[in-house]
TrEMBL record:
<dbReference type="InterPro" id="IPR029063">
    <property type="entry name" value="SAM-dependent_MTases_sf"/>
</dbReference>
<feature type="transmembrane region" description="Helical">
    <location>
        <begin position="40"/>
        <end position="61"/>
    </location>
</feature>
<feature type="transmembrane region" description="Helical">
    <location>
        <begin position="691"/>
        <end position="715"/>
    </location>
</feature>
<keyword id="KW-0812">Transmembrane</keyword>
<feature type="transmembrane region" description="Helical">
    <location>
        <begin position="588"/>
        <end position="608"/>
    </location>
</feature>
<dbReference type="InterPro" id="IPR020846">
    <property type="entry name" value="MFS_dom"/>
</dbReference>
<feature type="transmembrane region" description="Helical">
    <location>
        <begin position="73"/>
        <end position="95"/>
    </location>
</feature>
<dbReference type="GO" id="GO:0006596">
    <property type="term" value="P:polyamine biosynthetic process"/>
</dbReference>
<feature type="transmembrane region" description="Helical">
    <location>
        <begin position="620"/>
        <end position="641"/>
    </location>
</feature>
<dbReference type="GO" id="GO:0022857">
    <property type="term" value="F:transmembrane transporter activity"/>
</dbReference>
<dbReference type="InterPro" id="IPR030374">
    <property type="entry name" value="PABS"/>
</dbReference>
<keyword id="KW-0808">Transferase</keyword>
<dbReference type="Pfam" id="PF01564">
    <property type="entry name" value="Spermine_synth"/>
</dbReference>
<protein>
    <recommendedName>
        <fullName>Spermidine synthase</fullName>
    </recommendedName>
</protein>
<feature type="transmembrane region" description="Helical">
    <location>
        <begin position="560"/>
        <end position="582"/>
    </location>
</feature>
<feature type="transmembrane region" description="Helical">
    <location>
        <begin position="721"/>
        <end position="739"/>
    </location>
</feature>
<keyword id="KW-1133">Transmembrane helix</keyword>
């Protein structure tokens, strides 16, 4: 049964592409909150998403082969997607209430995997099933290049959707209203294309829900905090911000991760005063994160006449100003305090100011992006902004007692040794957390608690916790010697931007703490000699080449798998590099993804024009795989460009990354298009081929996502990971060229 109007088909596919990717972003933001920003669990959520979408694509292909999707099938899929999107967001928020998950408790990897599988199954299956349905409809209109045309149009819709969501809407509206709006758009397209009364009823229902979105959003946010009193919440471009009250204390959270509590002198006093007491007369101080409590503590030192506070998220400062009197005072204008709304690393790159004390109170390196604050490159930037005799301070969790396990000791030693590569003097203080102090001047740091006590008295600091007894107990000589001995016994490792060892150890510690078996695998891979992974990769490629060269079907599918794996791996590498060097990935994420998706759409359409014989198809496929290999090799060269510099090179570097992503997408779209054409040369046309090819693409994307973010990047670093991707693309080129 031919589809009555081609324009309706392409409108539906465009809406599907934009709605599916917007839905992915919005739902993953909810999972990010549910798993407290932990990259390991977020990767599990992304895997569940791709798994169900792939399963839906396979099932939809089989269903399309048995029953041709009629005019209303695509509209029905859009209607379901539009209804499921806000429903999935609400279900994710309801889980803590239903399962009675205590506030602050982290989900174990096994529990998270089961919850994500159940939560994402409906949306993922329907999303995957739409693609083969659309391919079957397009095949009835124009069989030539049907799968590639749908693939390219979906990519174009995704690019439009992510730009609209990320660049225009996100940050201005909360997540639930955005999901209701995206759902309303999908259901409206379904209603207009099918003109079914039921679908117009869905438009009315979602429209009413959108009108009452603010109270619904507030109530659903309270579900996420069972047993706690929620006093304020809000979506910023960077995180979900929440304020809860317990008796006289207010606690501020970002993505369910503790940010600071007010009043909380037990945490705030050691974070600030130990660093300031290390300096004989601090006048110029820089605080990197930590919130209003740290500012008020620092200003108790009357010698300070200039305090700069750097905070990435202005919404967090404004939220604190509503509840913390000191924060409101700073915003109104304190002559000693100046607030900069900027990424901490970016601030140090651009400023010329020097400081007596720099205190960093940022989250630990729980992912590759946060690792950039604990790298050798960042420490060098800090050193350039310290005055002679200046002090830099930060903390890492772990204690310092007899129970320090080997992985935790190696994690702490990593911070210690990375500091020692930059600063001539480094001093760790025992406790939980362990506090590190570094200075560009030898002999500037003080380990003797009696000297710190004398400075405490001279400055007339009346503190609750950092007092004489605290300093003598926590900084006892025996405790300091014990911690120093443990740190010196560990292997010498250095944390860097391109080799994020801090992220690696955080993964190991998180996995060990929560019973995840991957911790032992990460340690095993890290312990392998450098040549072993390359030998293993070469042996795997050889075996696959011998297996594929006489199996044209598998050889064709392998081109799509490698393309999906490689392009997703390169996209992750570009996102990490962008965050490392420019520091504002959240604002530009939509632009970066859009560049890739536009390239994907352009490549899918462009390569439809070329000759369709097996010989030309194989040559073009080999050429495009080699193009992706060259792009993977080019990325490490781009990452060597210094982060500091005039505006023009920075803009040129941003443009280079966008162009590289667009070229990678163009090559990837071309490989999918040409592989689909080659498939038809070696297999009879079937209605399920679109579902199979799309599922294989998603399989490659899954391998690229998990492999890059959870294995290659933390274990071996960005450079070797990209070299491995280049080798895989070279293998794919050789296998298709040698296929007989």
């Amino acid at each position: 049964m031919p589809f009555p109007r081609a324009a309706v088909l392409w409108g539906s596919v465009l809406a599907y592409g934009g709605g599916a990717l917007a839905g992915q972003v919005l739902i993953l933001r909810e999972l990010l909150v549910l798993c407290q920003g932990q990259e390991l669990k977020l990767a599990l959520g992304l895997w569940c998403w791709l798994f169900w979408t792939g399963m839906g694509s396979l099932a939809g292909g089989r269903l399309a082969a048995r029953h041709f999707p009629g005019p209303n099938s695509l509209a029905f899929c859009l209607f379901l997607l539009g209804s499921l999107l806000p429903g999935t967001v609400l279900a994710a928020r309801l889980l803590p209430e239903l399962l009675a998950i205590p506030a602050g408790q982290s989900l174990g990897p096994g529990t998270a995997l089961l919850l994500f599988l159940g939560l994402l199954a409906p949306f993922g299956l329907i999303s995957g099933g739409f693609f083969p349905f659309a391919c079957a409809v397009q095949n009835s209109l124009e069989p030539r290049g049907a799968v590639a045309r749908v693939y390219a149009t979906e990519a174009l819709g995704a690019a439009i959707g992510i730009v609209l969501l990320q660049a225009v809407l996100m940050g201005r509206y909360a997540n639930l209203p955005l999901s209701l709006g995206a759902g309303l758009a999908l259901v409206s397209v379904a209603a207009l294309s099918s003109r079914r009364l039921t679908f117009f009823g869905g438009v009315l229902a979602l429209g009413i829900a959108l009108l009452f979105a603010p109270p619904l959003d507030w109530q659903s946010r309270r579900w996420q905090w069972p047993g706690r009193q929620v006093v304020a919440t809000g979506d910023s471009p960077y995180a979900l911000l929440t304020v809860t009250r317990e008796k006289e204390q207010l606690t501020f959270f970002a993505n369910h991760v503790w940010h600071f509590t007010y009043p909380d002198p037990f945490s705030a006093e050691p974070s600030v005063h130990l660093a300031l007491l290390e300096h004989p007369h601090p006048e110029r101080v820089l605080l990197l994160g930590g919130g209003a409590p740290l500012i008020s503590e620092a200003l108790k030192h009357h010698s300070i006449h200039r305090l700069h506070y750097v905070e990435l998220d202005p919404d967090l400062v404004r939220l604190a100003a509503r509840f913390v009197p000191e924060a409101a005072h700073y915003l109104d204008g304190n002559p000693r305090v100046k607030i900069f709304y900027q990424d901490a690393r970016r601030f140090l790159t651009l400023t010329d100011a020097c400081y007596d004390v720099i205190i960093m109170n940022l989250p630990e390196p729980t992912n590759a992006q946060l690792n950039r604050y604990y790298s050798q490159e960042f420490f060098r930037s800090v050193a350039r902004h310290l005055s002679p005799g200046g002090v830099f301070s930060f903390a890492l969790g772990g204690g310092g007692g007899a129970g320090l396990n080997p992985a935790r000791a190696a994690y702490l030693a990593l911070g210690y040794n990375t500091l020692r590569c930059v600063f001539p003097e480094v001093l760790p203080f025992p406790g939980d957390p362990v506090r590190f102090f570094a200075s560009p001047t030898e002999g500037a740091l003080v380990a003797d608690p009696e000297i710190l006590i004398s400075r405490l008295k001279a400055r007339q600091l009346d503190l609750l916790y950092v007092r004489e007894y605290y300093l003598r107990s926590e900084l006892a000589h025996s405790r300091q010697q014990f911690l120093a001995a443990i740190l010196r016994q560990q292997p010498l490792e250095v944390n860097s931007d391109l080799n994020p060892r801090g992220f690696f150890y955080d993964l190991v510690l998180t996995g060990s703490r929560e019973g995840f078996p991957g911790a032992a695998i990460w340690l095993f891979l890290k312990g392998l000699p450098p040549a072993v992974p390359w030998i293993g990769l070469g042996f795997l490629c050889l075996v696959l080449w011998l297996s594929l060269r006489k199996r044209p079907v598998l050889c064709c599918l392998s081109q799509i798998v490698v393309m999906g794996l490689g392009t997703m791996g390169m996209e992750i590498a570009v996102l990490v590099l962008y965050q490392i060097y420019l520091g504002y990935l959240y604002r530009q994420l939509g632009l970066l993804i859009a560049a890739f998706m536009l390239g994907l759409a352009a490549g899918g359409i462009f390569w439809l024009r070329f000759p369709r014989g097996p010989g030309p198809l194989k040559r073009h496929l080999a050429g495009l795989q080699l193009t992706l290999a060259a792009l993977a090799l080019l990325l490490p060269a781009l990452s060597a460009i210094p982060e500091a510099g005039p505006v023009l090179p920075e803009i040129a570097w941003q443009g280079g990354l966008l162009l590289l992503l667009a070229l990678a997408g163009f090559a990837g779209g071309g490989i999918f298009s040409l592989s689909a054409a080659l498939w038809r040369q070696i297999r009879p046309a079937t209605a399920w081929e679109g579902g199979l090819l799309y599922a294989v693409d998603l399989l490659g994307a899954t391998l690229g996502t998990l492999g890059m973010s959870l294995v290659a990047l933390p274990v071996w670093g960005i450079g070797p990971a990209l070299w491995g991707l280049a080798a895989l693309h070279a293998f794919a080129a050789a296998s298709i060229a040698g296929w007989r």
